[in-house]
Write a structure and sequence with these properties.
The chain is mostly helical and 186 residues long. It has 3 domains: 1-58; 75-108; 111-179, no CATH class. It has 7 helices and no strands.
Amino acid sequence: MSERAYAEYAGLSRGAVQKARKNGRLVLFADGSINVAASDARRGAMTDPDQQMRSRGGVGAGGDGPGIGGSAVSGPGDSTSYLKARTALTVYQAQERQLAIQKKKGVLIDRARAETLVFRLARQERDTWVTWPTRVAALMAAQLSAEMEKASGMPVTIETAILQRVLETHVREQLDALADLRVSLA
């Protein structure tokens, strides 16, 4: 087939056919004419499908979109699979940019960092409660002794050590119950 005929057949300009011939994207017979089937295969393998469609001026041959008068099956060399992959990549990149923006605005936080902060806060809270009976036992013993003496009229002494052991027992039971709670940031 001649360059002019192949250009008309492929929906390309004659200059595009000459450029494809020069770049080795066309298969030629010994007499210099174009081997159509082999040239189509080579051009398909060597040319970006998106570029082929732009050169034709539409989404598919004749301006038909995928599935409209064309093949509904998408194969590895089919331009629709390329477009689907390119669209998926574009969507992924847009989502990635959106997440980066939300992270910068402070809407999103790093999960590992959040888990570390929650764990640290829980440990600080536990440590505060473990030391609480030691700090308040003497004060509570004095207040209870005063209240009981006032109510009964007789001197009453509550041992600080006993009150501290009772408080520690109850605080530890409460902390053991809280230890079963798990924070899920999923």
